[in-house]
Amino acid sequence: MENTDDMVQSVVGVIFSKNRQECPEPIKAVVQGNIPKWLQGTLLRNGPGIHTVGEMSYNHWFDGLSLLHSFTFKNGDVFYRSKYLRSDTYNSNMEANRIVVSEFGTMAYPDPCKNIFSKAFTYLSHVVPEFTDNCLINIIKLGNDYYASSETNFIRKINPQSLDTLEKVDYLKYVTVNLATSHPHYDNEGNTFNMGTSIGDKGRTKYLIFKVPSTVADTDKKKSPLKSAEVLCSIPAHRLLSPSYYHSFGMTENYVILIEQPLKLDIVKLATAYFRGVNWASCISFHDDEKTLFHIVDKRTKKAVAEKFYTDALVFYHHINAYEEDGHIVFDIIAYKDNSLYEMFYMANLRKDLTQETALTSIPVCKRFVVPLQHDKKTEVGANLVKIPTTTATAVKDKDGDIFCDAEILCEGIELPRINYDYNGKKYRYVYASHVEWRPIPTKIVKFDTMTKKMLEWTDDMCWPAEPLFVPDPDGKEEDDGIILSSIVSSDPNKSSFLLILDAKTFKEVGRASVKANVHLDLHGLFIPDNN
Question: Is residue 232 classed as helix, strand or coil in its secondary structure?
Answer without folding.
Answer: strand
